[in-house]
Each structure stands twice: as C-alpha cells, then as structure tokens.
UniProtKB/TrEMBL annotation:
It comes from Ornithinibacter aureus. The keyword Heme does not apply. InterPro entries: Ald_DH/histidinol_DH, Ald_DH_C, Ald_DH_CS_GLU, Ald_DH_N, Aldehyde_DH_dom. Residues 31-477 form the Aldehyde dehydrogenase domain. The keyword Oxidoreductase applies. This is Aldehyde dehydrogenase family protein. The active site is at E258.
Length: 496
C-alpha cells in the first residue's frame, strides 16, 4: 500500500472521437482494405475494444507503394526543400494544437500513463517535425556529401511502445529529405497513426506522400519484400530485425534497424544517491519498462549496494500503478496479454535461476494487464534475466568493485543501445563513455531524448542512427550520376 492517498484526477476520454472501424490511408484518402481480416484494438487498461482496424493485404501494400511512388516522382522529390519544410512546420503545429487529443488516444490504445503521453511522447513528436522542417532546405549544408538526393519510397515499420513518437522519428526525416513513405504501426497500437493520417489531410500534404497501412507481421513482411521499396526503417525486436536483414540481403534495398537493448545503469559510490534512485526509477519504470533503451540492469558499486537497495525499495513502494488516464499514475498497463505473458515467463525464469524477487506489493486493478514494479537482486551475469530483454517493469541488480569491472559487465550482453553512469567525477564519465559499447551514454540522468541528438545501437541493437544530422544520412543518397541513372531506371520499372 502506498503511504500516500490521492484524489483521482482522471483525464477525459471525450476529447477524442474514435470511429468504430478504420480503413487504410492510401493516396491521401481512407480506403477499404481488400481481402485482409479486420482486427480489434483494445485498451489494455480495461480490455475494452476501442475500434476495428483493417488488415492490409499484399495488394493493399502494392497500392500504397504505387501511391508513394507516384507522389515521389511527380510531386515530392521535385518540390523545393523550402516548400517541403512548410508542410512539415504545418504538421508540427497541428500536432501541438491537437496534442491533448493525441495524448489521450495514445494512452487509451497503449496503456501508458497520460502524464507521459502528454509530457513526453507528444511534445517530442511535434519537436521532431519542427526540427526536421528546419533541415528541409538546408540539406546541402548538413555534411551529407555532394548533392544529397532523396532515396525514394521508404517502408517504415514501428512497434507499440511509443507509437506516435516512433512514427515521428521515421516520417519527419524521410519527408524532410524528399522521400515518400508507407508506414505500418503495430497491431496493438494503430490509432494514433490513423489520427496522424487525418493530420496529413488537414495539412494538405500532397496525396501519397504518407501512406498508412495497418496489420500485423504479415503486412510488415509485405512491405519488406516489396520490390518498389528503396529503403526500410524498422524499429522493433532483434529477432524480427534479423529476419528483415536476411530478407533484403542481395537486394539494393537499404535499411536502418533500431532493435532491442539491455542497458546498464551504473551507480558509483560517489554518486548523488537519491538522484540516482530517481534515475533508476525513470530508467526502468518509465512507460512500464517498455523501452528499448531502458536501464534494465543496475550495476551498483558493492560498498553502497545495501543502501541503494533500501532506498530504491522505499521509493518503489510510493509508485502509483493503475488507471493510465489518471494524472497521478506513474506506471500504467502492460500493452497486451501477450507482452504480460512474456514478462511473467521471464520473471519465472529469474526465480528458477536463483535470483531474489521483490515487488512493491501495490494493489492492481481487476481488469486489464498489469505487472508490479519488480526488483531482482542476487543476479549474476550468466542469468537470462541479466542477458535478455524483459521489456517490462522489472530490473536486475548486479554489483561491481572497480570501474574496469563495471565496464566489462556493462558490455557483457549481445546488445549495445544505451547506458547510464552516475558519479561525481567528470573524468570518470568521459572514460566510461569511451569504454561503453552503447549508442547513447547518459551521465547523471537517464532516458533523455531530443531531436537534435542521434540515437541508435551497436551490436545486436541494430545499425543506423535516428535524429540529429546523422539521422538524415539514412534518407539521402549522394550517388554519382551513373548510379543515379540506374536507380531511376529501376524505380521506373518498380512503379509499373
Ligand atoms: P516486433 O515484434 O519486432 O514488432 C515491431 C514491428 O514489426 C511491429 O509493427 C510488428 O507488427 C512488425 N513485424 C512483426 N513481424 C514482422 C515481419 N516478419 N516483417 C516485418 N514486420 C514485422 O517488436 P515489438 O515486440 O512490437 O516491440 C518491442 C521491441 O522493439 C523491443 O525489442 C524493443 O527493444 C524494440 N524497440 C527498439 C527501439 C530502438 O529505437 N532501438 C525503440 C523501441 C522499441 P505487429 O506488432 O503488428 O505484429
Ligand atoms: Mg491497443
């Protein structure tokens, strides 16, 4: 039981209109799907059905790619960067104006606390459009190589943990660089992408520049396999990322893969301990731990391990778990029954491996999918809970004695997405950042994002960067005239 009682402060669901069923967004219009089986998306906090969504078949994906190709060759790649930028600024402003509607819809469909969708996902999504709007007419000055040109039609596949934010990470740079897109949201969280389709209409974006096809893995695979796709941008699990890399091997398709992670959050004995506790909470309990770069492994210096354990558990007992629409809620619902099953399975493995399990003991709602904030101590490096992604509100605690040991343990996973370092010493931060095989290293903070900062992984966390100037590189080609001529011929063939 939390020692604090709060009056509920529910956000209103009435600010958003959810249709009973949705078509696909192809060529600037909502169209019925041909042949797929419609599926339902639910609110994971209540298990209530929110809407029925279309499954795009391979024919539908074909139509979406054709619409994207036409828009690319006839309009978007010919438009000046300054004009493309105007559309992106317009989209960014509309996202800000309709932020409350988007935040509520994201929370209903995904289960994340409204204070996160309102204060993190939506402001950052708009910021990505603003940032990339600014680049659209300055690509010649972005050190991308001589005469940067768009790549063509981009297939984009995103997961369910940050549906709108991942859409923004993908669509904004693609459009800024003059590409057109076919995007598939995750099966359990399609609604904000469909609302974004309305925003494209509202912004008068030329038809076909953005196409949104809903569906599950098979629809994603149809995008991956489509010969008319020039580049793929995928965010999701390492297993599916590997399948995609295999599928496109030997083709001319380019890809960026943003995959899983198992970040170390490293606490030295000179760290400001209460701030480090807040950093741990933000690192692993933000978005129920459904975060690729979550600080899911705490590495704590041995002489402060007991103190940290006590303070962390005292803090976790105050986390409010429950109704995501309540503005007081800290930890919302697990996104789906399937994900809850995965978390429970991994936690059972951790117990069987001999680690000690502790949870906050808070009450949970009766309906919906929930998991209590959980800490495993006595974890060793060989444990599966120290090596594999759990993707839920579960953290493993390991100890170390020296900086070199912290580095060796932090790097001892197949992943390399992010890491956190907590210490008072600036020189140690720089040394650690140099030694850690992680795309992002946070110092005395965690899970901070900004569109100007590139994000991406090493090793099995994928390749390519999103955000910042580096993120533009994936969306342009600086091929010479001969190569461009042969690419143009190929695109012409693919659009037939
Ligand atoms: P996932 O199963 O790989 O799904 C990601 C997306 O791929 C979904 O839209 C999914 O469709 C689709 N998909 C599934 N099978 C496919 C196939 N054969 N071909 C093409 N597309 C396919 O991942 P998830 O479990 O939803 O997401 C969690 C994972 O994403 C975690 O591993 C997390 O670390 C990673 N992630 C990484 C980053 C990053 O930036 N590195 C950011 C966020 C999340 P359906 O869901 O509709 O089946
Ligand atoms: Mg849903």
């Amino acid at each position: 039981m939390s020692p604090f009682e709060y009056a509920p402060a529910p956000e209103s669901a009435a600010v958003v209109d959810i249709a009973s069923s949705y078509g696909l967004f192809i060529g600037g219009q909502f169209v019925p799907a041909t042949g797929g089986t419609p599926f339902k998306t639910v609110n994971p906090a209540t298990e209530e059905v929110l809407a029925e969504v279309s499954e795009a078949s391979t024919d539908d994906v074909d139509a979406a790619v054709a619409a994207a190709r036409t828009a690319y060759t006839r309009v978007w790649s010919r438009m000046s960067g300054a004009d493309r930028g105007k559309y992106l600024f317009r989209i960014a402003r509309i996202l800000q104006e309709r932020a409350r509607e988007f935040a509520v819809l994201e929370t209903l469909d995904n289960g994340k606390p409204i204070k996160e969708s309102r204060d993190v996902d939506l402001p950052l999504a708009a910021a990505h459009f603003f940032y990339h709007a600014g680049w659209a007419d300055k690509l010649d000055h972005a050190s991308l190589g001589p005469n940067p040109r768009p790549v063509g039609v981009v297939g984009q596949i995103v997961p369910w943990n940050f549906p709108m934010l991942m859409l923004a990470w993908k669509v904004a740079p693609a459009l800024a660089c003059g590409n057109t897109v076919v995007l598939k949201p995750a099966e359990t969280t399609p609604l904000t992408a469909l609302l974004f389709a309305e925003v494209c209409q509202q912004a008068d974006l030329p038809p076909g520049v953005v196409n949104i096809v809903t569906g599950a893995g098979a629809t994603g695979q149809a995008i991956v396999d489509h010969p008319g796709i020039d580049k793929l941008a995928f965010t999701g699990s390492t297993a599916v990322g590997k399948m995609i890399a295999r599928s496109i091997a030997g083709t001319r398709k380019r890809a960026t893969l943003e995959l899983g992670g198992k970040a170390a959050n490293i606490i030295f004995d000179d760290a400001p301990i209460d701030q480090a506790v807040e950093g741990i909470v933000n690192g692993i309990f933000f978005n129920q731990g459904h975060v690729c770069c979550a600080g899911s492994r705490i590495l704590v210096q041995e002489n402060i391990a007991e103190d940290l354990d006590r303070r962390l558990k005292r803090r976790l007992a105050t986390l409010r778990v429950g109704d995501p629409m309540d503005k007081n809620t800290d930890v919302g619902a697990i996104n789906s029954r399937k994900q809850l099953d995965r978390i429970e399975e991994m936690v059972a493995i951790g117990e069987a491996e001999g680690a000690q399990r502790w949870d906050s003991g808070c009450e949970l709602p009766t309906n919906g999918f929930w998991f209590r904030p959980t800490v495993f101590s006595g974890v060793s490096q060989t444990h599966r809970i120290a090596q594999e992604e759990i993707f839920g509100p579960v953290v493993s605690v390991l100890t170390f004695r020296t900086p070199a040991e912290a580095v060796a343990k932090a790097n001892n996973t197949p992943y390399g997405l992010s890491a956190g370092v907590w210490t008072e010493k600036g020189s140690r931060i720089l040394w650690m950042a140099d030694q850690l095989r992680a795309g992002v290293v946070w110092a005395n903070t965690f899970n901070k994002f900004d569109p100007t900062s590139p994000f991406g992984g090493y090793k099995e966390s994928g390749y390519g960067r999103e955000g910042g100037r580096h993120g533009l590189e994936a969306y342009v080609t600086t091929a010479g005239p001969l190569e461009r001529a042969s690419e143009a011929a190929r695109s012409k063939g693919a659009s037939k």
